[in-house]
Amino acid sequence: MGKALIIGAGGVASVVVHKCCQNSDVFENICIASRTKSKCDALKEKLDGGKTKISTAQVDADNVGELVSLIKDYQPDIVINVALPYQDLTIMDACLECKVNYLDTANYEPKNNAKFEYKWQWDYRERFEKVGITALLGSGFDPGVTGVFSAYAQKHYFDEIHYIDILDCNGGDHGYPFATNFNPEINIREVSAKGSYIENGEWVETEPMEIKRVYNFKGVGEKDMYLLHHEELESLALNINGIKRIRFFMTFGQSYLTHLKCLENVGMTSIEPIDYEGKQIIPLQFLKAVLPDPASLGPRTVGKTNIGCIFKGIKDGQEKTYYVYNICDHQECYKEVGSQAISYTTGVPAMIGAMMLMTKKWNKPGVYNIEEFDPDPFMDALNKWGLPWEEDFNPILVD
Ligand code: NDP
Predict the structure, then answer these.
(1) What is the pTM of this model?
(2) pLDDT tens-digit profile of 53-92?
(3) Is the CB of 30 under 6 A from ligand 1?
(4) CA atoms of 283 and 267, how far apart (whole Å)
(5) Ligand 1 in contact with 82 (CB < 6 A)?
Protein backbone atom coordinates (compact mmCIF):
# COMPACT_ATOMS: atom_id res chain seq x y z
CA MET A 1 0.00 0.00 0.00
CA GLY A 2 2.65 2.59 0.85
CA LYS A 3 5.89 3.94 2.28
CA ALA A 4 6.78 5.13 5.77
CA LEU A 5 9.84 7.07 6.83
CA ILE A 6 10.72 6.16 10.44
CA ILE A 7 12.95 8.69 12.21
CA GLY A 8 14.92 7.37 15.20
CA ALA A 9 16.51 3.96 15.74
CA GLY A 10 16.16 3.50 19.50
CA GLY A 11 14.00 1.24 21.68
CA VAL A 12 10.63 2.43 20.37
CA ALA A 13 11.76 2.65 16.73
CA SER A 14 12.89 -0.97 16.87
CA VAL A 15 9.36 -2.09 17.78
CA VAL A 16 7.80 0.16 15.10
CA VAL A 17 10.09 -1.40 12.50
CA HIS A 18 9.23 -4.97 13.61
CA LYS A 19 5.50 -4.21 13.58
CA CYS A 20 5.59 -2.50 10.17
CA CYS A 21 7.34 -5.60 8.79
CA GLN A 22 4.60 -7.82 10.27
CA ASN A 23 2.06 -5.56 8.52
CA SER A 24 3.60 -5.61 5.06
CA ASP A 25 0.28 -5.19 3.21
CA VAL A 26 0.18 -1.62 4.54
CA PHE A 27 3.92 -0.94 4.98
CA GLU A 28 5.35 -2.17 1.68
CA ASN A 29 8.39 -0.02 2.02
CA ILE A 30 10.04 1.60 5.04
CA CYS A 31 13.11 3.77 5.47
CA ILE A 32 14.77 3.91 8.91
CA ALA A 33 16.65 7.19 9.33
CA SER A 34 18.49 8.38 12.39
CA ARG A 35 21.50 10.28 13.65
CA THR A 36 23.59 7.10 14.00
CA LYS A 37 23.15 5.20 10.74
CA SER A 38 24.79 2.00 12.08
CA LYS A 39 21.77 1.52 14.40
CA CYS A 40 19.43 1.77 11.38
CA ASP A 41 21.58 -0.72 9.47
CA ALA A 42 21.53 -3.14 12.41
CA LEU A 43 17.71 -3.06 12.42
CA LYS A 44 17.62 -3.59 8.67
CA GLU A 45 19.97 -6.54 8.96
CA LYS A 46 17.71 -8.17 11.56
CA LEU A 47 14.54 -7.83 9.49
CA ASP A 48 15.62 -7.76 5.87
CA GLY A 49 14.37 -10.35 3.43
CA GLY A 50 10.65 -10.20 4.23
CA LYS A 51 7.88 -8.61 2.18
CA THR A 52 8.52 -5.10 3.50
CA LYS A 53 11.43 -3.50 1.67
CA ILE A 54 13.79 -1.71 4.09
CA SER A 55 16.26 1.07 3.40
CA THR A 56 18.27 3.22 5.80
CA ALA A 57 19.61 6.76 5.90
CA GLN A 58 21.58 9.11 8.10
CA VAL A 59 19.76 12.28 9.15
CA ASP A 60 20.14 14.98 11.75
CA ALA A 61 16.50 15.59 12.63
CA ASP A 62 17.36 18.95 14.22
CA ASN A 63 18.13 20.16 10.70
CA VAL A 64 15.05 20.97 8.56
CA GLY A 65 17.09 21.15 5.33
CA GLU A 66 18.46 17.61 5.81
CA LEU A 67 15.00 16.29 6.61
CA VAL A 68 13.47 17.96 3.55
CA SER A 69 16.02 16.48 1.18
CA LEU A 70 15.56 13.01 2.71
CA ILE A 71 11.75 13.24 2.45
CA LYS A 72 11.91 14.57 -1.14
CA ASP A 73 14.26 11.79 -2.06
CA TYR A 74 12.30 8.93 -0.39
CA GLN A 75 8.74 10.27 -1.04
CA PRO A 76 7.00 8.61 1.95
CA ASP A 77 3.26 8.67 2.64
CA ILE A 78 3.96 9.36 6.32
CA VAL A 79 6.82 10.35 8.60
CA ILE A 80 6.81 8.45 11.92
CA ASN A 81 8.79 10.47 14.45
CA VAL A 82 10.19 8.16 17.12
CA ALA A 83 13.33 10.22 17.73
CA LEU A 84 13.12 12.55 20.74
CA PRO A 85 10.55 15.23 21.61
CA TYR A 86 13.15 17.92 20.86
CA GLN A 87 12.85 17.07 17.14
CA ASP A 88 9.05 17.38 16.85
CA LEU A 89 8.97 20.89 15.40
CA THR A 90 11.79 20.49 12.89
CA ILE A 91 10.17 17.29 11.60
CA MET A 92 6.77 18.99 11.41
CA ASP A 93 8.37 21.87 9.47
CA ALA A 94 9.85 19.41 6.99
CA CYS A 95 6.53 17.55 6.62
CA LEU A 96 4.78 20.85 5.89
CA GLU A 97 7.31 21.77 3.26
CA CYS A 98 7.02 18.34 1.59
CA LYS A 99 3.25 17.94 2.19
CA VAL A 100 3.56 14.60 4.01
CA ASN A 101 1.56 13.29 6.99
CA TYR A 102 3.27 13.34 10.41
CA LEU A 103 2.98 11.20 13.56
CA ASP A 104 4.75 11.25 16.92
CA THR A 105 4.52 9.68 20.39
CA ALA A 106 5.56 12.54 22.67
CA ASN A 107 4.91 16.26 22.60
CA TYR A 108 7.52 18.89 21.91
CA GLU A 109 9.73 20.15 24.68
CA PRO A 110 12.61 22.57 24.32
CA LYS A 111 16.00 21.09 25.21
CA ASN A 112 16.89 23.80 27.71
CA ASN A 113 13.57 23.87 29.58
CA ALA A 114 11.98 20.67 30.93
CA LYS A 115 8.44 21.82 30.21
CA PHE A 116 6.24 20.07 27.73
CA GLU A 117 2.95 21.39 26.45
CA TYR A 118 1.00 21.22 23.20
CA LYS A 119 0.91 24.90 22.30
CA TRP A 120 3.94 24.75 20.01
CA GLN A 121 2.50 21.89 17.97
CA TRP A 122 -1.12 23.09 18.03
CA ASP A 123 0.20 26.32 16.45
CA TYR A 124 0.74 24.34 13.21
CA ARG A 125 -2.95 23.47 12.87
CA GLU A 126 -3.93 26.00 10.20
CA ARG A 127 -0.80 25.44 8.14
CA PHE A 128 -1.37 21.66 8.09
CA GLU A 129 -5.04 22.17 7.17
CA LYS A 130 -4.09 24.53 4.38
CA VAL A 131 -1.75 22.09 2.64
CA GLY A 132 -4.12 19.16 3.27
CA ILE A 133 -1.94 16.97 5.50
CA THR A 134 -2.48 15.46 8.96
CA ALA A 135 -0.33 15.52 12.09
CA LEU A 136 -1.34 12.83 14.58
CA LEU A 137 0.10 13.82 17.96
CA GLY A 138 0.83 11.34 20.72
CA SER A 139 0.31 7.90 19.18
CA GLY A 140 2.15 5.84 21.81
CA PHE A 141 0.53 4.29 24.88
CA ASP A 142 0.39 7.25 27.20
CA PRO A 143 -0.20 9.52 25.43
CA GLY A 144 -1.82 7.46 22.73
CA VAL A 145 -3.88 4.46 23.72
CA THR A 146 -5.04 6.37 26.84
CA GLY A 147 -6.60 8.95 24.46
CA VAL A 148 -8.16 6.22 22.33
CA PHE A 149 -9.57 4.57 25.50
CA SER A 150 -11.04 7.96 26.50
CA ALA A 151 -12.64 8.53 23.09
CA TYR A 152 -14.02 4.97 23.19
CA ALA A 153 -15.51 5.46 26.68
CA GLN A 154 -17.06 8.73 25.53
CA LYS A 155 -18.47 7.22 22.34
CA HIS A 156 -19.93 4.02 23.79
CA TYR A 157 -20.51 4.36 27.52
CA PHE A 158 -20.99 7.95 28.73
CA ASP A 159 -22.96 11.12 28.06
CA GLU A 160 -20.50 13.01 30.22
CA ILE A 161 -17.20 11.88 31.73
CA HIS A 162 -16.49 13.77 34.94
CA TYR A 163 -13.38 12.03 36.26
CA ILE A 164 -10.50 10.28 34.52
CA ASP A 165 -7.61 8.60 36.33
CA ILE A 166 -4.89 7.27 34.05
CA LEU A 167 -2.94 4.50 35.80
CA ASP A 168 0.42 3.46 34.38
CA CYS A 169 1.83 0.46 36.19
CA ASN A 170 5.10 -1.19 35.31
CA GLY A 171 5.49 -4.34 37.39
CA GLY A 172 8.61 -5.33 35.47
CA ASP A 173 11.95 -6.06 37.10
CA HIS A 174 15.18 -5.64 35.10
CA GLY A 175 17.47 -6.57 37.98
CA TYR A 176 19.41 -3.28 37.99
CA PRO A 177 19.21 -1.06 41.10
CA PHE A 178 18.45 1.89 38.77
CA ALA A 179 17.63 2.09 35.06
CA THR A 180 14.95 3.78 32.99
CA ASN A 181 12.65 1.97 30.59
CA PHE A 182 12.85 4.59 27.88
CA ASN A 183 15.26 7.37 27.02
CA PRO A 184 16.79 8.23 30.45
CA GLU A 185 17.06 11.94 29.75
CA ILE A 186 13.37 12.30 28.77
CA ASN A 187 12.25 9.92 31.54
CA ILE A 188 14.13 11.69 34.35
CA ARG A 189 13.05 15.15 33.14
CA GLU A 190 9.46 13.89 33.32
CA VAL A 191 9.54 12.28 36.76
CA SER A 192 11.63 14.91 38.54
CA ALA A 193 9.30 17.74 37.43
CA LYS A 194 6.48 19.03 39.64
CA GLY A 195 3.29 16.99 39.50
CA SER A 196 0.01 18.48 38.31
CA TYR A 197 -3.58 17.62 37.50
CA ILE A 198 -6.62 19.46 36.20
CA GLU A 199 -9.55 20.18 38.48
CA ASN A 200 -12.53 22.33 37.45
CA GLY A 201 -10.68 23.71 34.45
CA GLU A 202 -7.59 24.75 36.45
CA TRP A 203 -4.15 23.16 36.72
CA VAL A 204 -3.30 22.22 40.31
CA GLU A 205 0.44 21.89 40.92
CA THR A 206 2.08 19.52 43.43
CA GLU A 207 5.65 18.90 44.53
CA PRO A 208 7.34 16.01 42.67
CA MET A 209 5.95 12.68 43.96
CA GLU A 210 3.89 14.50 46.61
CA ILE A 211 0.68 12.51 46.00
CA LYS A 212 0.95 8.77 46.50
CA ARG A 213 -1.74 6.10 46.25
CA VAL A 214 -1.65 2.31 46.40
CA TYR A 215 -3.54 0.30 43.78
CA ASN A 216 -4.00 -3.40 43.17
CA PHE A 217 -3.39 -3.98 39.46
CA LYS A 218 -4.72 -7.04 37.70
CA GLY A 219 -1.82 -9.18 36.46
CA VAL A 220 0.70 -7.32 38.63
CA GLY A 221 -0.57 -6.91 42.21
CA GLU A 222 -0.40 -4.05 44.68
CA LYS A 223 1.91 -1.14 43.80
CA ASP A 224 2.69 2.36 45.02
CA MET A 225 1.83 4.95 42.41
CA TYR A 226 2.53 8.68 42.28
CA LEU A 227 0.77 11.58 40.64
CA LEU A 228 2.75 13.07 37.73
CA HIS A 229 2.19 15.82 35.22
CA HIS A 230 1.51 14.14 31.88
CA GLU A 231 0.89 15.56 28.46
CA GLU A 232 -2.44 13.94 27.61
CA LEU A 233 -4.11 15.67 30.58
CA GLU A 234 -3.97 18.92 28.59
CA SER A 235 -5.64 17.59 25.44
CA LEU A 236 -8.14 15.24 27.12
CA ALA A 237 -9.43 18.05 29.34
CA LEU A 238 -10.36 19.89 26.12
CA ASN A 239 -11.57 16.99 24.00
CA ILE A 240 -13.66 14.91 26.42
CA ASN A 241 -17.10 16.21 27.44
CA GLY A 242 -17.80 17.20 31.03
CA ILE A 243 -14.34 16.74 32.62
CA LYS A 244 -14.17 17.91 36.24
CA ARG A 245 -10.90 16.27 37.17
CA ILE A 246 -8.19 14.35 35.34
CA ARG A 247 -5.09 12.85 36.92
CA PHE A 248 -2.17 10.64 35.88
CA PHE A 249 -0.44 8.13 38.18
CA MET A 250 2.66 6.07 37.53
CA THR A 251 4.10 3.28 39.70
CA PHE A 252 7.66 3.47 41.00
CA GLY A 253 9.58 1.04 43.20
CA GLN A 254 11.43 2.20 46.29
CA SER A 255 14.87 1.51 44.80
CA TYR A 256 14.12 3.74 41.78
CA LEU A 257 12.91 6.58 44.00
CA THR A 258 15.83 6.36 46.43
CA HIS A 259 18.36 6.45 43.59
CA LEU A 260 16.55 9.30 41.86
CA LYS A 261 16.50 11.37 45.07
CA CYS A 262 20.19 10.78 45.59
CA LEU A 263 21.04 11.69 41.98
CA GLU A 264 18.92 14.84 42.31
CA ASN A 265 20.56 15.76 45.60
CA VAL A 266 24.04 15.62 44.09
CA GLY A 267 23.01 17.57 40.98
CA MET A 268 23.22 14.72 38.46
CA THR A 269 19.70 15.31 37.08
CA SER A 270 20.31 18.98 36.30
CA ILE A 271 19.97 20.26 32.72
CA GLU A 272 22.07 23.37 33.46
CA PRO A 273 25.44 23.13 31.67
CA ILE A 274 28.53 22.97 33.92
CA ASP A 275 32.25 23.32 33.16
CA TYR A 276 34.11 20.02 33.40
CA GLU A 277 37.81 19.94 32.55
CA GLY A 278 37.43 22.85 30.17
CA LYS A 279 34.35 21.42 28.48
CA GLN A 280 30.68 22.29 29.01
CA ILE A 281 28.61 19.24 29.93
CA ILE A 282 25.00 18.77 30.98
CA PRO A 283 24.88 16.52 34.06
CA LEU A 284 21.69 14.71 32.96
CA GLN A 285 23.20 13.90 29.55
CA PHE A 286 26.32 12.56 31.26
CA LEU A 287 24.12 10.45 33.54
CA LYS A 288 22.35 9.05 30.45
CA ALA A 289 25.72 7.94 29.11
CA VAL A 290 26.48 5.85 32.24
CA LEU A 291 23.01 4.33 32.70
CA PRO A 292 21.98 1.09 30.96
CA ASP A 293 20.61 1.63 27.45
CA PRO A 294 16.82 1.02 27.68
CA ALA A 295 17.06 -1.04 24.48
CA SER A 296 19.34 -3.47 26.38
CA LEU A 297 16.77 -4.20 29.12
CA GLY A 298 14.68 -6.54 26.97
CA PRO A 299 16.35 -9.86 27.79
CA ARG A 300 16.55 -9.08 31.54
CA THR A 301 13.09 -7.69 32.25
CA VAL A 302 10.45 -9.99 33.69
CA GLY A 303 6.90 -9.19 34.82
CA LYS A 304 4.02 -7.26 33.34
CA THR A 305 2.75 -3.76 32.67
CA ASN A 306 -0.86 -2.74 33.21
CA ILE A 307 -1.82 0.64 31.75
CA GLY A 308 -5.36 1.97 31.52
CA CYS A 309 -7.95 4.57 32.41
CA ILE A 310 -10.71 4.64 35.02
CA PHE A 311 -13.69 6.79 34.07
CA LYS A 312 -16.54 8.05 36.21
CA GLY A 313 -19.47 9.95 34.73
CA ILE A 314 -23.10 9.88 33.69
CA LYS A 315 -25.05 7.77 31.19
CA ASP A 316 -28.81 8.31 30.76
CA GLY A 317 -28.88 10.21 34.04
CA GLN A 318 -27.23 7.37 35.99
CA GLU A 319 -23.78 7.46 37.56
CA LYS A 320 -21.41 5.02 35.87
CA THR A 321 -17.81 3.80 36.21
CA TYR A 322 -15.64 2.05 33.63
CA TYR A 323 -12.03 0.83 33.58
CA VAL A 324 -10.26 -0.21 30.39
CA TYR A 325 -6.66 -1.42 30.42
CA ASN A 326 -4.04 -3.50 28.69
CA ILE A 327 -1.77 -6.02 30.39
CA CYS A 328 1.50 -6.65 28.60
CA ASP A 329 4.20 -9.17 29.49
CA HIS A 330 7.84 -8.05 29.17
CA GLN A 331 9.16 -11.49 28.25
CA GLU A 332 6.43 -12.12 25.66
CA CYS A 333 7.39 -8.82 24.00
CA TYR A 334 11.02 -9.81 24.07
CA LYS A 335 10.25 -13.16 22.44
CA GLU A 336 8.22 -11.47 19.71
CA VAL A 337 10.29 -8.40 18.82
CA GLY A 338 13.38 -8.40 21.08
CA SER A 339 12.23 -5.45 23.25
CA GLN A 340 10.76 -4.94 26.71
CA ALA A 341 7.12 -3.95 27.20
CA ILE A 342 7.63 -0.18 27.55
CA SER A 343 9.07 0.08 24.05
CA TYR A 344 6.48 -2.45 22.83
CA THR A 345 3.45 -0.64 24.27
CA THR A 346 4.70 2.57 22.59
CA GLY A 347 5.81 1.14 19.25
CA VAL A 348 2.68 -0.89 18.51
CA PRO A 349 0.30 2.13 18.77
CA ALA A 350 2.74 4.18 16.66
CA MET A 351 2.46 1.57 13.90
CA ILE A 352 -1.34 1.44 14.29
CA GLY A 353 -1.67 5.25 14.17
CA ALA A 354 0.41 5.30 10.98
CA MET A 355 -1.78 2.54 9.54
CA MET A 356 -4.93 4.59 10.35
CA LEU A 357 -3.57 7.51 8.30
CA MET A 358 -2.13 5.41 5.47
CA THR A 359 -5.35 3.46 4.97
CA LYS A 360 -7.34 6.72 5.32
CA LYS A 361 -9.50 5.23 8.07
CA TRP A 362 -8.52 8.48 9.77
CA ASN A 363 -8.50 11.24 7.23
CA LYS A 364 -8.76 14.90 8.18
CA PRO A 365 -6.18 17.58 7.48
CA GLY A 366 -4.87 19.56 10.44
CA VAL A 367 -3.07 18.84 13.73
CA TYR A 368 -4.94 16.47 16.03
CA ASN A 369 -4.58 14.60 19.26
CA ILE A 370 -5.48 10.96 19.00
CA GLU A 371 -8.79 11.18 20.90
CA GLU A 372 -10.14 13.47 18.16
CA PHE A 373 -10.51 10.49 15.79
CA ASP A 374 -12.98 7.58 15.75
CA PRO A 375 -11.55 5.14 18.34
CA ASP A 376 -13.24 1.97 17.01
CA PRO A 377 -10.83 0.91 14.25
CA PHE A 378 -7.87 1.64 16.54
CA MET A 379 -9.40 -0.43 19.36
CA ASP A 380 -9.87 -3.36 16.94
CA ALA A 381 -6.30 -2.99 15.75
CA LEU A 382 -4.97 -3.08 19.34
CA ASN A 383 -6.51 -6.52 19.76
CA LYS A 384 -5.09 -7.68 16.46
CA TRP A 385 -1.55 -6.31 16.77
CA GLY A 386 -0.54 -7.38 20.28
CA LEU A 387 -2.14 -5.04 22.83
CA PRO A 388 -5.52 -6.61 23.70
CA TRP A 389 -7.60 -4.66 26.20
CA GLU A 390 -9.87 -5.69 29.06
CA GLU A 391 -12.87 -3.94 30.59
CA ASP A 392 -14.19 -3.68 34.14
CA PHE A 393 -17.55 -2.04 34.76
CA ASN A 394 -17.20 -2.04 38.53
CA PRO A 395 -13.59 -1.03 39.25
CA ILE A 396 -12.05 0.02 42.55
CA LEU A 397 -11.70 3.80 42.27
CA VAL A 398 -8.66 5.86 43.31
CA ASP A 399 -9.45 8.31 46.14
P1 NDP B 1 15.91 6.22 22.42
O2 NDP B 1 16.82 7.17 23.11
O3 NDP B 1 16.09 4.76 22.60
O4 NDP B 1 15.93 6.51 20.84
C5 NDP B 1 15.91 7.80 20.30
C6 NDP B 1 16.44 7.72 18.89
O7 NDP B 1 16.33 9.02 18.32
C8 NDP B 1 17.90 7.31 18.84
O9 NDP B 1 18.06 6.40 17.78
C10 NDP B 1 18.61 8.64 18.56
O11 NDP B 1 19.79 8.53 17.82
C12 NDP B 1 17.57 9.33 17.69
N13 NDP B 1 17.83 10.76 17.68
C14 NDP B 1 18.00 11.60 18.73
N15 NDP B 1 18.28 12.83 18.31
C16 NDP B 1 18.28 12.77 16.95
C17 NDP B 1 18.51 13.72 15.93
N18 NDP B 1 18.80 14.99 16.20
N19 NDP B 1 18.45 13.32 14.64
C20 NDP B 1 18.17 12.03 14.34
N21 NDP B 1 17.93 11.08 15.26
C22 NDP B 1 17.99 11.45 16.55
O23 NDP B 1 14.43 6.67 22.83
P24 NDP B 1 13.11 5.75 22.89
O25 NDP B 1 13.06 4.89 21.68
O26 NDP B 1 13.02 5.16 24.23
O27 NDP B 1 11.97 6.87 22.78
C28 NDP B 1 11.59 7.42 21.53
C29 NDP B 1 10.44 8.39 21.72
O30 NDP B 1 9.30 7.71 22.26
C31 NDP B 1 10.74 9.55 22.69
O32 NDP B 1 10.23 10.73 22.15
C33 NDP B 1 9.96 9.17 23.94
O34 NDP B 1 9.58 10.31 24.68
C35 NDP B 1 8.74 8.50 23.31
N36 NDP B 1 8.02 7.61 24.23
C37 NDP B 1 6.65 7.71 24.27
C38 NDP B 1 5.91 6.90 25.11
C39 NDP B 1 4.42 6.92 25.06
O40 NDP B 1 3.79 6.02 25.63
N41 NDP B 1 3.77 7.86 24.39
C42 NDP B 1 6.57 5.96 26.03
C43 NDP B 1 8.00 5.85 25.85
C44 NDP B 1 8.70 6.68 24.99
P45 NDP B 1 21.20 8.10 18.49
O46 NDP B 1 21.15 6.62 18.42
O47 NDP B 1 22.24 8.69 17.62
O48 NDP B 1 21.20 8.65 19.89
Answers:
(1) 0.95
(2) 999 999 999 999 999 999 999 999 999 999 999 999 999 9
(3) no
(4) 7
(5) yes
